[in-house]
Amino acid sequence: MRVVLDTNVLVSGLLSPFGTPARVLDLLTAGALVPLFDDRIFQEYADVLTRPRFGFGEDDVGTLLAYVRAQGELVVAPPLDVEIPDPDDLPFLEVATHGGARALVTGNARHFHPRRGAHAVEVWSPAELLSHHRTLPG
User: Fold this and answer.
1) Residue 3, SS3?
2) DSSP summary character for residue 111
3) Are 24 and 13 in contact (CB under 8 A)?
């Protein structure tokens, strides 16, 4: 399943290895999810995951980022004519739209409700992703 993972899903999954976001990371590393990203998203992943306040091991972050780069799909996404609450989240929506993602997975769905314009991207919580994954054939 092709998805865009918001950075907060990666952070939450690494912070709490027994939570729902961690199950999303399990699906990712098992090859059940194909992460879509662009250079902006990848850079945000790297910047956020290496913040000292999280205390993630450098090797762990490097391994996750290398996996995303190797197993994911780099998408070149043109701008969308939509305004969302946090303009810094727009790359996730653009990549999901132009990369043909099944969904954008986030812990903050309200960040993707348009203030102006519209989009057709399904925005799921980690729990919704797990629910949809269980109902897919195969």
Assistant:
1) strand
2) G
3) yes
The residue to which tokens 């780069």 are assigned = 69
Q: Residues with Cβ < 8 Å from 36, sequence gap 6 or more?
A: 2, 3, 4, 72, 73, 75, 95, 96, 99, 101
Enumerate residues 6+ apart whose C-beta is below 8 A from 53.
Answer: none
Token pair, residue 107, equals 């812990």
Question: Can you tell me the distance from the alpha carbon of 125 to that of 109, in angstroms, rounded to the nearest whole number?
Answer: 7
23 versus 134: the higher-pLDDT residue is: 23
Q: Could you tell me whether strands 103-105 and 123-124 are parallel, antiparallel, or unpaired per DSSP bridges? A: parallel
Question: What is the C-alpha end-to-end distance of the chain, expressed in Å?
Answer: 12
* 25: exposed, middle or buried (Cβ count in 10 Å: 0-12, 13-18, 19+): buried
Whether residue 138 is predicted with pLDDT greater than 90 in this model: the reply is no
For residue 40, give the amino acid letter.
R
